[in-house]
Amino acid sequence: MRALLARFLGDEVGATAIEYAIIAGGISIVIVAGVRGIGTSVSGQFNAVSSAFK
């Protein structure tokens, strides 16, 4: 039983997978925020050009 408990506590594979998932989630949030910011800027530029043609 002690050997099983020691092996369970020493196993870090699951913790590493969770760490990578958290890092990937953070990166995806940054990418989404950046794309939304760029999209808003581009939309404003298209509206300005459209208004200039009217």
Estimate the global geometry from the Cα principal axes. rod-shaped
Number of strands: 0
> Would you identify the regions where 5 or more consecutive residues have pLDDT less than 50?
none
Give the percentage of residues in beta strands: under 5%
Provide a descriptive summary of the structure in words.
This protein has a domain at 20-54. The radius of gyration is 24 Å and the shape is rod-shaped. It is mainly α. It is 93% helix and 0% strand. It has helices spanning 2-10, 13-53. The longest helix is centred in the middle third of the chain and has 41 residues, at 13-53. The mean pLDDT is 88.
Helix/strand layout:
Layout (H helix, E strand, L loop, with lengths): L1 H9 L2 H41 L1
